[in-house]
Amino acid sequence: MNRPRIYVTPVGEPDWNRFVIRRGKHRYWDGTGWTHDARDALLYHEEQDAISQAMVMNDSMPPRRFVTTCLIVVDHEPFTVKDLQKVLEQSVVSVVVPDQHEHLDIDINLDLRGLEEIQ
Hints:
- This protein is of the alpha+beta class.
- It has helices at about 45-60, 80-90; strands at about 5-15, 15-25, 30, 35.
- The protein has a domain at about 5-60.
- It contains two helices and four strands, in the order ββββαα.
- The longest helix is centred in the middle third of the chain and has 14 residues, at about 45-60.
């Protein structure tokens, strides 16, 4: 799931639509930096102008990647590794972050190639 970390969303009334650049849930581009207050966001009249700017910003922001081992416990019999792999391939894994980090946007991508059952 390579979702853009910076994206454009419409704001305002349908008959007076404007667009803002966002990063995560509560961070808005104000023209010089990121703000948590949507009222300070830079408004774009043309959606394509905002999209173009967001693409430039996405391209200039290298992602930070982390890796860890995950223990998956399934309380269901019978359930095979192939069953689990099928379920995980059709699922979305998400994280609920504490309020003080509400601006974080964390994507979790599972690499199922090494999935195996442990005893």
